Every structure is written in C-alpha cells, then in structure tokens.
Amino acid sequence: MAASAPRKTTTARKTTPRKRPTKAPADLGLVLDDDAARAETDKMLADREPLFTIGGTTYTIPKQVPPSWSVKAFTIAVTKGESAAIEYAAEKLLTPEAWEALQECETVTPAAWKTIFKALMDRILPESGFGPKA
Fold this sequence. Notes:
Layout: H1 35-46, E1 48-54, E2 57-62, H2 67-80, H3 82-93, H4 96-104, H5 110-124
Antiparallel strand pairs: 1-2
Helix pairs in contact: 2-3, 3-5
C-alpha cells in the first residue's frame, strides 16, 4: 500500500450564519384582543358610578361599556325581546351581589324598578329606544 501524503491541516473557516430573508409581518388589521385592548376595557369597566343603595350598600354600574355588549344587547332585543335584553344588561352591568340584592329587596317600588332598568338599558344601548319608557 502506498503511503499517502500527509494531510494539510487547514484552519477552520469561520462562517457567518446565513441570514434568512425576513418576512414582513402579516397585516392583521386592528388586533382587538391584545393586552392593550384588554387593559383599556378593564379600566373602562372599573370606572363605575352609583345606581342604587340597599341595606346601606351602594351598588354601581360602569360609566361606559364595551361596544360588544351593546351589539349583543341589541341583537337580543331584536331576536328575543326587550325582557331578554334587560336581563342580559342586568347580568352584565351589575355584580352578582347587586343583582341578588335587587331581586331580594321587597321595598323596591315600581317607579324605582323602571328607573333602574331604564338606567341599565340606557347604559348598554344608548339612544336605542329600548327599555321602559320614563
């Protein structure tokens, strides 16, 4: 067997990693459920005002609601009726404690009920015409 020539030692060639072409981010339009939107909605719902007081406890509703609540309340009013829309509004706008207190309070007058439900509907469906007539 013939002797082979000694191998040349070569220094390792330094290679820089190949840059892959970067793709432009896809145009997503408005991103409606990102952290910033969530924070804005949480802040909106935390800004509340008094609606009624029962047993020394004042219950509040948000000063503004997310537009999605309004769209859903309107859809419910059109498809299922005003009563179903009022129920949806009460469940969304009032805390469970406020809703229970209101249902359990035996001294709520018909005029007070009308005022409370009108406030709920005016908040969730501003200028819609739905809700009790004052």
